């Protein structure tokens, strides 16, 4: 971290709900190196419950900095994307 900014991150595409669909289907999750379905950015705590989620198998969390404030990026993986390697 430090003052190197966050290369690779775009400030665009974030709606009022703090969800960013960056159309990054060809990219890999920085946490588990697995393709992900969508990314969201959060600047406060929230509850995640995937026990009964039919679409997503898991969500990885990556801490990032935006405008000097801590945020967390969520990488949503579908059951198909996690699939056989987990
Ligand atoms: Zn992941």
TrEMBL record:
Residues of the DUF8145 domain: 23-85
InterPro entries in the record: DUF8145
Protein name, UniProt field: DUF8145 domain-containing protein
Organism: Haloferax gibbonsii (strain ATCC 33959 / DSM 4427 / JCM 8863 / NBRC 102184 / NCIMB 2188 / Ma 2.38)
Source lineage: Archaea, Methanobacteriati, Methanobacteriota, Stenosarchaea group, Halobacteria
């Amino acid at each position: 971290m430090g003052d190197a900014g966050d290369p690779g991150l775009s400030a665009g595409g974030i709606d009022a709900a703090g969800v960013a669909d960056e159309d990054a289907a060809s990219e890999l999750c920085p946490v588990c190196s697995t393709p992900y379905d969508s990314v969201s950015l959060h600047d406060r705590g929230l509850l995640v419950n995937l026990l009964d989620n039919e679409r997503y198998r898991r969500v990885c969390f990556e801490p990032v900095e935006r405008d000097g404030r801590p945020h967390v990026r969520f990488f949503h993986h579908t059951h198909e994307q996690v699939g056989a390697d987990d």
